[in-house]
C-alpha cells in the first residue's frame, strides 16, 4: 500500500487520462483516416476497392451501379482509397459515431450503356 501511495497521489493531482466518450470527442490528428466517402459522380463501379478490401466490407454491383460499405466492418485502413483508379474514394478525418444499429453507406450510380467509355472497365 505504501509503495502505491506516490502513484495514487500523482494520479489525483494530474489531469485524467480518459475521456467520457462519446460526449467528449478528441480532436482527430492531422492525417487521421476516418469514415469513407464515395463520390458517385466519379465512381465507375469497377469493384477494385471491394477486391482489395481486407475486411470484405465493400460490395459493388457493376450491372446495377451500386456501391455499399458495411461501415461497422471497416478498419479505416485506406487501402480502397489508394486502389481506386477514379479517385472517387476519400476519407473524412472524423471517425464514425457510435450507433445502436449497424449502418451501411449505400451509393446508387447511373447505369451506363455497354458502349459508354465511362462505363465499367
Ligand atoms: S475502385 Fe473506385 S471507381 Fe471502382 S468501384 Fe471502387 S470506388 Fe468505384
Ligand atoms: S478503408 Fe480499408 S477496411 Fe475500410 S472499406 Fe476501405 S479497404 Fe475496406
The whole-angstrom Rg is 21 Å
Quantity of strands, as a count: 5
Rounded mean pLDDT is 89
Quaternary status of these chains? single chain
CATH level 1 name of the domain at 30-108: Alpha Beta
Order of helices and strands: HEHEEHEE
Count helical runs.
Answer: 3
Largest sheet: 3 strands, antiparallel
Uncertain parts = none
Strand content of the residues, in percent?
15-25%
Structural class: alpha+beta
Shape: elongated
In whole angstroms, the N-to-C terminal distance is 69 Å
CATH 2nd-level architecture of the domain at 30-108: 2-Layer Sandwich
The strands making up the biggest β-sheet line up spatially as 2-3-5
Helices and strands in order, then pairings?
Layout: H1 5-13, E1 36-38, H2 48-52, E2 58-61, E3 66-70, H3 79-83, E4 89-91, E5 104-108
Antiparallel strand pairs: 1-4, 2-3, 3-5
One iron/sulfur cluster binds next to α3.
Amino acid at each position: 500500500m505504501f509503495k502505491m501511495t506516490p502513484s495514487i497521489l500523482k494520479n489525483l493531482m494530474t489531469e485524467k487520462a480518459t475521456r467520457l466518450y462519446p460526449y467528449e470527442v478528441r480532436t482527430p490528428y492531422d492525417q487521421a483516416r476516418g469514415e469513407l466517402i464515395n463520390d458517385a459522380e466519379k465512381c465507375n463501379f469497377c469493384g477494385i476497392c471491394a477486391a482489395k478490401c481486407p475486411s470484405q466490407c465493400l460490395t459493388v454491383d457493376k450491372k446495377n451501379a451500386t456501391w455499399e460499405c458495411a461501415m461497422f466492418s471497416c478498419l479505416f485502413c485506406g487501402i480502397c482509397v489508394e486502389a481506386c483508379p477514379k479517385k472517387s474514394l476519400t476519407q473524412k478525418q472524423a471517425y464514425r459515431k457510435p450507433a445502436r444499429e449497424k449502418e451501411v453507406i449505400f451509393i446508387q450510380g447511373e447505369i451506363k450503356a455497354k458502349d459508354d467509355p465511362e462505363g465499367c472497365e
